Amino acid sequence: AQSVTQPDIHITVSEGASLELRCNYSYGATPYLFWYVQSPGQGLQLLLKYFSGDTLVQGIKGFEAEFKRSQSSFNLRKPSVHWSDAAEYFCAVGAKAAGNKLTFGGGTRVLVKP
Amino acid sequence: DGGITQSPKYLFRKEGQNVTLSCEQNLNHDAMYWYRQDPGQGLRLIYYSQIVNDFQKGDIAEGYSVSREKKESFPLTVTSAQKNPTAFYLCASSPGTEGQPQHFGDGTRLSIL
Predict the structure, then answer these.
(1) Engineered SS bond to B91: which of A15, B23, B86, B101, CB 3.0-4.6 Å?
(2) B79: which residues sit within 8 A by CB, 6+ positions away?
(3) What are residue A74's DSSP bridge partners?
(4) B99 vs A51: CB contact, 8 Å cut-off?
(5) Could you tell me which of A92, A75, A88 has the C-alpha nearest to residue A27?
(6) Any residues with CB less than 8 A from the CB of A3 and at least 6 apart, and which?
(7) For each successive 10 residues of chain A (114 residues), what is the average pLDDT?
(8) How far apart are CA A9 and CA B88, in angstroms?
(9) What is the pLDDT of residues B84-106, one digit of tens each?
(10) The pLDDT value given to residue A80
């Protein structure tokens, strides 16, 4: 069965500082991976996805993520955080062999200090 | 604009009552999903449907039921058998093919009176 771990439950970062959110997955075959963001009381918005090809993927709102097969990781980064980036972030993994269902990590809540 | 509409945004249930959450999409997606979100637990899959008139149980289907009579609609009923229904419920849809992301509605928050 596939699984996703987001080791950091909460991260606090100063506005203008860089941000990195960790995501580790477990799956035997090559998965496809997503990062989503959720504001309080809202649904999830897709930030970026990795399916194949270039392992460094660019997303919306200035986010990027790098797929590292050897480390089973798909970490999300942003060079300079804005106050509006305060939200909860979810990593998700899917695979054709799993019926294209997604498995989500537990989420990382990001707080931005002024 | 294409998207997913969940209604109502807030819902209250009395003990022993069934309630139905609505989910409608106009994205022409084949697959639809229902998730439950509790604080600190991420999203857990309740039911999913990959095609009209067919659906499968997810990881936490007990106490829930669904139907998929139309491509654009996937209502979720929270039955009285669900003993802890207070949660945030999210509906999603996708083309259902490999590598495609799921698109989410804005959710329904269900509380017990």
Answers:
(1) B23
(2) B18, B63, B64, B65
(3) A67
(4) yes
(5) A92
(6) A25, A26, A27, A93, A103
(7) 91 97 88 94 95 92 95 96 97 84 94 95
(8) 19
(9) 999 999 999 999 888 899 999 99
(10) 98
Q: What is the pLDDT of residues B53-88, one digit of tens each?
A: 999 999 999 999 999 999 999 999 999 988 899 999
What pairing do the DSSP bridges indicate for beta strands A87-94 and A108-113? antiparallel
Residue B92 is which amino acid? A
For residue A98, what pLDDT is reported? 75
CA atoms within 13 A on the CB side of B40: 2
Q: Judge: A43–B101 Cβ closer than 8 Å, yes or no.
A: no
Q: Using the beta-carbon criterion (under 8 Å), do B99 and A101 form an inter-chain contact? A: no
The answer for B 52-81 residues in CB contact with A (under 8 A) is 56, 58
Nearest to A101 among B42, B48, B97 (CB): B48
Q: Which residues of B touch A32 (CB under 8 A)?
A: 98-99
Which residues on neighbouring strands pair with residue A45, listed in sequence order?
A37
Do the beta carbons of residue A108 and residue A89 sit within 8 Å? yes
| pLDDT tens-place string over residues B6-45 | 999 999 988 889 999 999 999 999 999 999 999 877 899 9
User: What residue in A sits closest to B58 (Cα-Cα)?
Assistant: A101
- Residue A106 and residue B42: Cβ atoms within 8 Å? yes
Whether residues A43 and B96 touch (CB distance < 8 A) is answered with no
Nearest-CA distance from A53 to chain B in Å? 12
